[in-house]
C-alpha cells in the first residue's frame, strides 16, 4: 500500500498540480479528500483527459472532474475483498481508508508483488498485507518455474521450492544472502546496473537446459528489487520439436560414436566415476600399468566398466596416438573370427569380398587391441593368438608372407579363466601370457558409496542425452535404488535410470518410475487354470534370470543351466513375450 503522508489532493488542487502528481507517482488516480482527510472522490486519468480535451487552463481546480462514487476499502478489509476490488477494477487501484474513515493510502496491483519484498516491520503489522503475502507466497511456492526475488540490496527475500530443487539448494542457504554469492550463474546483479528486463541465453545445470528471465522491480521510478524466473521444464516439455531435434542429434551422435568406437578410445580416467576407495586405488594402479608395455587382463562382472578401463589405459599410455581397436570375441561367429583378427589376402575367398580385408591386428598396429570376452575364444584361435603375442607377427588368411605388428593387448573377461584352464577350455600358456598384470574390478554391490554417487552422475549425463529435466529422486525411490543388488552393475544402473527418467513426469524420479523387479516384487503370473507349484517356481526363476541379464537370453539360459532352445520353449509355454 502507498501511504499518502507526503501530499494531499483536494477539490482546489489545480490541473497542473494533478498532472505533476500523477506523473511523479505513476498512479492511475488521485484520492481527493477534504481538509480533514475524508474521501470526497477520486481524480482519474479519464478526468484529466477530459480537462485537457476541453482545453482548460492549467490553473483550473479539478473539482468539477472528480468521480464522487469512488470505491474505498477500510484498512481492515479482508484480503478476499481487496483481491476482488483490485483484481476486477479496470484501474487496478483501490483507496484505503483508516479506522476513522480517512484516506490512508492507495492499494495497487503492483503492491501484490511488492508486498513480498517489503520486510519493513510497519508493513508487516498490517493484517491485509500479511494475508496477501501469505497467499502470494503459496502461489509462488507452487509455481512451475523457479522464482527468486531480491530486494534493493540484492539480498534474496524469496526463493520457491522449484528453484531450490533445480539448483540443489536449501532455503536457509539462500535467504537474506546476496544473489551473486549463492547463485552467481543467474547474473541477477545485471538488472541492478541496467534496470532493464532481459532473458539470458541457454544455460545448463545438471544437464538441464534453462533460461533466466531477469526482471527489475520498480517503484515510483526507483529500483526496489529484482525478480529472477528460471524456466527449465517448459523448455523441454512445451517445445516438443526442440526435444525431437535434441533426440535425433543425440542418436546421431551415439551412432557416430558407435562407428568410431572400434578405432578410437573416447574415455579417460575422468569418465570412470567412483568415490569408493578400493576403486580409486584400482584406477591408480591401472594408470601406472598403462605407462608400461605389458599385456593387461581386466576381470570383473558384466557391466562393471572393463571396457571403460581399457579405453582409459590406452588413452594414458604412450600409444594414445595410435588406434584403439575393440574385438568382442563372443559377438563374432567362430568361422569369421580368424579373418576378423588377421584379415585375408585378395582372392582368398570367392564372391564379393575378393579385394582382401585388413584385420584388427593390422589396424591396431602401433596402438592397442582390446579383446573383450576373451573366455569365449575357441582353442584353435587361442593358439593363433598366442603365436602373435610371442612372435609379434602373423599371416593373413590365405597369405604367405609374415606381417610384423606392434600391438599392445588388453583382454577382458567375466569368466573364471582359472577354472576354464583346469577344465581344458582355456590354454594355460595363453592364460599366463595375458595375465601379466591383472586388474579386478569389484561389482557395484561391493562398492558401497558408489551407487548413490553414480545416481547423481547419471542424472546429469542422461538429462543431457535424453533432453529431460530431472532434478532428483524422491526418498522412497532413492531407498529402492540403493537397496537393490545390481547384478548387471553400472550398465544395469544406467539402463534403469534411463527408463525412469523417461517415465518421470514431475521432475523427480518416483517409486512408480522404477521397474517392478527392483522393488522386490514377484511378477504376476498369467491367470492359467491349474498352474502347479513347480511351474510357478520355474516361471519365477526364468523371470529373475532374465531381469538379472537385462533380457539376454543366452546368459539367462546359462544361469538357469538349460540350453538356449530349452529357454525359448519355456518362454513360449509361459507366454513370456521378451
Ligand atoms: N565407474 C563408472 N562410471 C561411469 N560409467 C560407468 C562406470 N562403470 C561402468 N560404466 C558404464 O556402464 C556401462 C558398461 O560399462 P563397460 O561396457 O565398460 O562394462 P564391461 O565390464 O566391459 O561390460 P561387459 O563385460 O558386459 O562387456 C557403460 O555404459 C559404461 O560407460
TrEMBL record:
Which InterPro entries did the record assign?
A: AAA+_ATPase (IPR003593), AAA_lid_NorR (IPR058031), CBS_dom (IPR000644), CBS_dom_sf (IPR046342), Homeodomain-like_sf (IPR009057), HTH_Fis (IPR002197), P-loop_NTPase (IPR027417), PAS (IPR000014)
Q: Which SUPFAM superfamilies match?
A: CBS-domain pair (SSF54631), Homeodomain-like (SSF46689), P-loop containing nucleoside triphosphate hydrolases (SSF52540), PYP-like sensor domain (PAS domain) (SSF55785)
Q: Where is the CBS domain?
A: 1-58, 66-123
Q: Does the keyword Cell cycle apply?
A: no
Domain spans labelled Sigma-54 factor interaction: 272-502
UniProt xrefs under CDD domains? AAA (cd00009), CBS_pair_SF (cd02205)
Coiled-coil region? none
Q: Where is the PAS domain?
A: 132-185
> Mind telling me which Pfam families this protein's record contains?
AAA_lid_14, CBS, HTH_8, PAS_8, Sigma54_activat
Tell me which PROSITE patterns the record gives: CBS (PS51371), PAS (PS50112), SIGMA54_INTERACT_1 (PS00675), SIGMA54_INTERACT_2 (PS00676), SIGMA54_INTERACT_3 (PS00688), SIGMA54_INTERACT_4 (PS50045)
The keyword ATP-binding is annotated on this UniProt entry: yes
Q: Write out the GO biological process terms.
A: regulation of DNA-templated transcription
**Keywords in UniProt for this one?**
ATP-binding, CBS domain, DNA-binding, Nucleotide-binding, Transcription, Transcription regulation
Signal peptide residue numbers: none
Q: What is this protein called?
A: Diguanylate cyclase
Amino acid at each position: 500500500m502507498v501511504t499518502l503522508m507526503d501530499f494531499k489532493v483536494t477539490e482546489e488542487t489545480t490541473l497542473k498540480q494533478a498532472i505533476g502528481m500523477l506523473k511523479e507517482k505513476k498512479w492511475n488516480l488521485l484520492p481527493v479528500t477534504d481538509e480533514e482527510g475524508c474521501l470526497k472522490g477520486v481524480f482519474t486519468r479519464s478526468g484529466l483527459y477530459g480537462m485537457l480535451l476541453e482545453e482548460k487552463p492549467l490553473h483550473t481546480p479539478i473539482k468539477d472532474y472528480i468521480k464522487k462514487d469512488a470505491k474505498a476499502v477500510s484498512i481492515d478489509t479482508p484480503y478476499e475483498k481487496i483481491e476482488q476490488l483490485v483484481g476486477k477494477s479496470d484501474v487496478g487501484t483501490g483507496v484505503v481508508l483508516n479506522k476513522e474513515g480517512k484516506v490512508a493510502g492507495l492499494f495497487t496491483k503492483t503492491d501484490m508483488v511488492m508486498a513480498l519484498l517489503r520486510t519493513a516491520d510497519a508493513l508487516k503489522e498490517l493484517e491485509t498485507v500479511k494475508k496477501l503475502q501469505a497467499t502470494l507466497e503459496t502461489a509462488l511456492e507452487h509455481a512451475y518455474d523457479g522464482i527468486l526475488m531480491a530486494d534493493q540490496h540484492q539480498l534474496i527475500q524469496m526463493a520457491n521450492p522449484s528453484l531450490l530443487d533445480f539448483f540443489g539448494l536449501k532455503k536457509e542457504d539462500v535467504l537474506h544472502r546476496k544473489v551473486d554469492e549463492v547463485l552467481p550463474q543467474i547474473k541477477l546483479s545485471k538488472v541492478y546496473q541496467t534496470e532493464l528486463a532481459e532473458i539470458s541465453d541457454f544455460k545448463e545445470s545438471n544437464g538441464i537446459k534453462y533460461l533466466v528471465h531477469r526482471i527489475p522491480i520498480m517503484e515510483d521510478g526507483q529500483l526496489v528489487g529484482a525478480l529472477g524466473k528460471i524456466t527449465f521444464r517448459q523448455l523441454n516439455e512445451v517445445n516438443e520439436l526442440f526435444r525431437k531435434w535434441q533426440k535425433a542429434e543425440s542418436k546421431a551422435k551415439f551412432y557416430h560414436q558407435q562407428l568410431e568406437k572400434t578405432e578410437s578410445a573416447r574415455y579417460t580416467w575422468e569418465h570412470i566415476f567412483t568415490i569408493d576407495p578400493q576403486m580409486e586405488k584400482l584406477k591408480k594402479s591401472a594408470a601406472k600399468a598403462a605407462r608400461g608395455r605389458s599385456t593387461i587382463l581386466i576381470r570383473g562382472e558384466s557391466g562393471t566398466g572393463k571396457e571403460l578401463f581399457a579405453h582409459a589405459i590406452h588413452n594414458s599410455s604412450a600409444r594414445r596416438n595410435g588406434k584403439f581397436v575393440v574385438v568382442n570375441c563372443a559377438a563374432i561367429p567362430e568361422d569369421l573370427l580368424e579373418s576378423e583378427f588377421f584379415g585375408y589376402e585378395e582372392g582368398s575367398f570367392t564372391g564379393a569380398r575378393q579385394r582382401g580385408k585388413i584385420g584388427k591386428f593390422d589396424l591396431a598396429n602401433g596402438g592397442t587391441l582390446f579383446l573383450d570376452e576373451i573366455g569365449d575364444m575357441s582353442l584353435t584361435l587361442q593358439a593363433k593368438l598366442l603365436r602373435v603375442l610371442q612372435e609379434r607377427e602373423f599371416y593373413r588368411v590365405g597369405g604367405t608372407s609374415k606381417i610384423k605388428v606392434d600391438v599392445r593387448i588388453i583382454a577382458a573377461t567375466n569368466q573364471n579363466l582359472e577354472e576354464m584352464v583346469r577344465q581344458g577350455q582355456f590354454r594355460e600358456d595363453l592364460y599366463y601370457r595375458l595375465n601379466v598384470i591383472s586388474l579386478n574390478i569389484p561389482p557395484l554391490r561391493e562398492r558401497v558409496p558408489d551407487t548413490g554417487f553414480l545416481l547423481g552422475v547419471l542424472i546429469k549425463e542422461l538429462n543431457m542425452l535424453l533432453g529431460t529435466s530431472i532434478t532428483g529422486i524422491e526418498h522412497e525411490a532413492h531407498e529402492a535404488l540403493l537397496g537393490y543388488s545390481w547384478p548387471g552393475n553400472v550398465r544395469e544402473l544406467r539402463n534403469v535410470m534411463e527408463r525412469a527418467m523417461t517415465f518421470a513426469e514431475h521432475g523427480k524420479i518416483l517409486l512408480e518410475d522404477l521397474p517392478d523387479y527392483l522393488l522386490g516384487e514377484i511378477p504376476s503370473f498369467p491367470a492359467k487354470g491349474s498352474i502347479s507349484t513347480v511351474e510357478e517356481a520355474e516361471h519365477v526363476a526364468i523371470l529373475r534370470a532374465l531381469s538379472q541379464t537385462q533380457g539376454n537370453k543366452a546368459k539367462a539360459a546359462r544361469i538357469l543351466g538349460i540350453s538356449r532352445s530349452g529357454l525359448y520353449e519355456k518362454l513360449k509355454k509361459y507366454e513370456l513375450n521378451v
